[in-house]
Design brief:
Length: about 375
């Protein structure tokens, strides 16, 4: 079976597994403990992994906070900013195509008295910069916008968004779950990004581990937020709880591999995406329609309408030979809110399949598309 649901999760890299194994067995120490060797070894392993993730995204090591994944990171940042800065304003801006962990958190905050603006998007899922600019208010304390869309692959113009937030001194959080490890990210080029969320299992690391970037201020201190988890004060007091060293080591190794292979992988994924698109066009002609454009996107992600087909039945029928999805794995029981937001009818939404590739695939594997 050909696995083509890499936007949902990725296969763990063999080198990642090998790096993790010692920290499940021999090196079982708690990195918060002192003096004895297994604790020191764990502490050093965490330090190395933090450096690897920071290096992948162009951050300082001390700006990385480990979490259980992007859902926790998104919740931590949005709720943490809202709580800590509520006396400075209660307006938040997001978009209609965010991940459920952002949208549901924003809806929760609306119940607590916050005003949330949900920006419309264009037919490819990107916000309008003019619309965004017009919605900024004096009491806007946070902007939270996805960098790369998990269903369409579309990239928002994060440079322009970050510049606007920087000029207005507004906190900007970006859910970069689909971008980190797949597209070049150098946060030193985006001074307006205050917070970023990512997750290890999206770039061949383990599940259950992610990272939050929190930018340091001009005093070299992390931007203040209210912690989501209180306790022993781990992770600079931002995220308490005993560190999952084996998962952190896996995340670090995945980040190291992603950085080394990024340019090569991008080129490979772009070529495979082009090849699959060509096969589908040749085979199905006007029976299909692509929901994404071909520029400013995550390589290797295709969103395709098979006109007149039911996507759930299509996914089921393809399952013996190909693993694909109808959209986000985190909201699979509902019609896609992303596709609805870009203006598709319910029939178009229910005929859409997402194919998402990884560097583990070879071009010859894609010959299977000719047999559809």
């Amino acid at each position: 079976m050909l696995y083509l649901d890499n936007s949902a999760t990725t296969q763990i890299h063999p080198e990642v597994k090998e790096a993790m194994l010692p920290y499940l067995m021999e090196e079982f120490g708690n990195p918060s403990s002192k003096y004895y060797s297994v604790a020191e070894n764990a502490k050093n392993a965490v330090k190395e992994a933090r450096h690897s993730l920071a290096s992948l995204i162009g951050a300082q090591d001390s700006e990385i906070i480990f979490t259980s994944g992007s859902t926790e990171s998104n919740n931590m940042v949005i709720k943490g900013v809202a709580d800590y800065y509520s006396n400075q304003g209660k307006h938040i801006i997001t978009s209609k195509v965010e991940h459920p962990s952002v949208l549901e958190t924003c809806r929760y905050l609306e119940e607590k008295g916050f005003e949330v603006t949900y920006l419309d998007v264009d037919k490819y899922g990107r916000i309008s910069l003019e619309d965004f600019k017009s919605q900024l208010q004096d009491n806007t304390i946070l902007v939270t916008l996805i960098w790369g869309n998990n269903e369409l692959g579309s990239l928002n113009d994060m440079e322009s968004i970050a510049d606007l937030c920087y000029e207005r001194n507004i906190f900007l959080h970006t859910d970069a779950t689909q971008v980190v490890g797949k597209v070049e990210v150098n946060l030193s080029d985006y001074p307006g990004i205050t917070f970023l969320s990512c997750s290890g299992h999206k770039f061949h690391g383990p599940k259950g581990i992610g990272g939050t970037f929190i930018r340091k201020d001009r005093y070299d201190l992390l931007t203040k937020i209210t912690p989501l988890l209180h306790g022993g004060g781990q992770e600079q007091g931002i995220r308490s709880g005993t560190l999952a060293v084996h998962n952190i080591v896996g995340l670090g190794k995945a980040a190291e591999i992603a950085k080394q292979s990024l340019t090569k992988n991008i080129k490979k994924l772009e070529e495979m995406e082009s090849y699959v698109s060509m096969i589908l066009k040749d085979k199905f002609s006007d029976q299909i329609e692509f929901n994404h454009d071909n520029t400013q996107k995550i390589p290797g992600v295709l969103s395709v309408q098979f006109k007149g087909a039911n996507n759930e039945l299509l996914v089921k029928s393809l399952a013996p030979v190909m693993a694909v999805s109808t959209g986000s794995a985190c909201s699979s029981s509902k019609p896609s809110h992303v596709l609805a937001a870009i203006g598709l009818s319910i029939d178009q939404v229910r005929s859409t399949i997402r194919f998402s590739m990884s560097s583990f695939i070879e071009k010859e594997d894609l010959e299977i598309f000719k047999e559809l």
